[in-house]
Write a structure and sequence with these properties.
Chain A: This is ABC-2 type transport system ATP-binding protein. Chain A: It comes from Prosthecomicrobium pneumaticum. Chain A: Belongs to the ABC transporter superfamily. The complex is a heterodimer of chains A (311) and B (253). Chain A has 311 residues and is of the alpha/beta class. Chain B has one domain. Classes of the chains: A alpha/beta (311), B mainly alpha (253).
């Protein structure tokens, strides 16, 4: 892992005036160029965390640096490095796409550059709509406008807060494509989502936040390997009365006797070997079967296990 | 200092003005023209001169001032309230800007629009009543200073308001009475003793008088005091806005 993280969060706490502790001491380092997905149930603190890093929320204690700049002491440099796409579709409804994106560029301190604004609009398939008023656009298009605004000042870090909430499947896939292209250009992307499919599809690393605490940060593949399970189901030609002994202690038989199941914890087993051994053992004992199904647990199941076990 | 941000905010706000040209400029001009027809031309002909100035001409500075006050407050308060209401304020809060850029952009645009309106109204007034301007440089100075001061006040109002009702009620319940009782249509010397003294606590009196002095060289209070009072009020507004940004009042949780 790179030794030079682009965002460093240390001991970050946030207590709202109501007394609600939204963040309870978060420590997190985001690597340069990665796609980091922050998962968590509603109210876990995802948006508060992003809000603090981007300057919308004041931290109670702790520090954050973005691209090496402290977000409080050196807020100008820190914020210039960051682009934020908020969760709400908050747009200047009466403005044109071109004006609102140009405005964002200026606001973040960059001189007007028609070519750069054009490039951003084309990248997001908004070029045809550049003179359209935002209120005439569909929800998906408005989401693109928000991304274009966030990219207009060429940020090195992009925060996407629930980028595909309320977006249809096709647009969601488009959005994923956009995010991947940005990563190829070297932009670090931090997204929050509660569509676990999204994190599974895109993220390099995953952080799970729950009740204001970061309960886990792990590479996606390692996470799915270490916490994932593989379930093997063997459909038998003839029903058995009991689990055949001597094959595997973890084998279970369905109540009708026609399906043998084996659940493998990825952490301790070499899955493929176990499946092969099971098949060989069944053949050796003359137990005939018609189907073998293996299913790996999804990130969603892992997530539900993780968060569910805490509540 | 982020000069690009000032430019971006200023141009964005000005384009909002020109997009809503009719309500931004035409409506105040029409309502002021009505004042001139009724008070200046119709009633004014039956009124005595005040300090040697015909009544129609006497009310010109007061009417310009009244428009300047209400429009500055309305523009600036709406300019900052709108992004708070729609949620687009997130961008301003996450941008590399300080209170200086935000004020220069938003208040600068609101004040520019008010000064433009004031100029249009002066020109309109010239069609109804003849008047001269004795101290044109001071006239412009007062115009700009007051536009800036009340845009600042409007900006505070727009930050403080948490609904469209509050946005309307302060101009309606506080500013309009102060403007009417601030000697817009009369000289406060015309008031009986106690009410004249009470009037001196109305800040609008100083604005209207300073402005009127720049037109006709005569006023109820000295122009130096008028200018000083306007500055004090402006400094007060800058102080309040800076405090709001420093503490995140109604902006950052």
């Amino acid at each position: 892992m790179a030794a030079d993280p682009i965002v460093v969060v240390s001991g970050l706490e946030k207590t709202y005036e109501t007394g609600f502790k939204a963040l309870k001491g978060i420590d997190l380092a985001i690597e340069r160029g990665e796609i980091f997905a922050l998962l968590g149930p509603n109210g876990a603190g995802k948006t508060t965390l992003i809000g603090i890093i981007c300057g919308l929320v004041r931290p109670t204690s702790g520090t954050v640096t973005a691209d090496g700049h402290d977000i409080v002491r050196d807020y100008r440099a820190a914020r210039a490095a960051i682009g934020l796409v908020p969760q709400e579709l908050a747009t200047d409804t009466f403005e044109t796409v071109w004006n609102t994106v140009s405005f964002s560029r200026g606001l973040f301190g960059l001189p007007a550059d028609r070519a750069e604004v054009e490039r951003v609009l084309r990248e997001l398939s908004l070029w045809d709509k550049k003179d359209a008023k935002i209120k005439t656009l569909s929800g998906g298009m408005k989401r693109r406008v928000l991304i274009a605004k966030a990219l207009a000042h060429e940020p090195r870090i992009l925060f996407l807060d629930e980028p595909t909430a309320g977006v249809d499947v096709e647009l969601r896939r488009d959005m994923w494509g956009i995010v991947r292209r940005l990563r190829e250009r070297g932009v670090t992307i931090i997204l929050t989502t509660h569509y676990i499919e999204e994190a599974e599809e895109m993220a390099d690393r995953i952080g799970v936040i729950d009740k204001g605490e970061l309960i886990l940060v792990e590479e996606k593949h390692r996470l799915m390997r270490s916490l994932g399970r593989t379930r093997v189901s063997v459909g038998l030609r003839e029903a058995l009365i009991a689990v055949p002994p001597g094959i595997d202690d973890r084998l279970t038989l369905s109540s009708d006797g026609t399906t043998l199941s084996l659940v493998l914890d990825g952490e301790t087993e070499d899955d493929d070997d176990s499946i092969a051994a099971l098949v060989k053992a069944l053949s050796a004992r003359g137990i005939d079967f018609k189907t073998i199904n293996t299913t790996r647990s999804s990130l969603e199941e892992i997530f539900i296990d993780l968060v569910g076990s805490r509540s | 200092m982020n000069l690009q941000a000032i430019r971006a905010i200023y141009l964005f706000e000005m384009s909002r003005t020109f997009r809503t040209l009719l309500q931004s400029i035409a409506s105040p001009v029409i309502s002021t023209a009505l004042y001139f027809i009724v008070f200046g031309s119709a009633i004014g002909q039956h009124m005595a001169t005040i300090d040697g100035v015909p009544y129609g001409a006497f009310i010109v500075p007061g009417l310009v001032m009244m428009t300047l006050l209400t429009q500055s407050i309305a523009n600036a308060s709406f300019g900052i309230y709108l992004p708070r209401f729609t949620g687009t304020i997130y961008e301003l809060l996450s941008a590399p800007v300080s209170v200086v850029e935000v004020l220069a952009g938003y208040v600068g645009a609101a004040a520019s629009k008010s000064v433009l309106l004031g100029a249009i109204i002066l020109v309109t007034a010239r069609f109804f009543v003849p008047f001269e301007i004795v101290h044109p440089v001071w006239m412009v100075a007062f115009l700009v200073l007051i536009a800036v001061t009340f845009s600042l006040f409007g900006f505070i109002l727009g930050l403080w308001a948490d609904g469209f009702e509050k946005l309307q009620i302060v101009p309606l319940m506080i500013v309009t009475p102060l403007a009417f009782l601030g000697g817009t249509f009369y000289s406060i010397d015309m008031l009986p003793g106690i009410w004249r003294t009470v009037s001196l606590f109305n800040p609008v009196v100083y604005l209207v008088n300073g402005f009127r002095w720049s037109f006709y060289g005569a006023s109820d209070v000295s122009p130096g005091v008028s200018f000083g009072m306007t500055f004090v009020f402006m400094a007060l507004c800058v102080g309040v806005v800076t405090w709001m940004f420093r503490t995140g009042y109604r902006l950052r949780t």
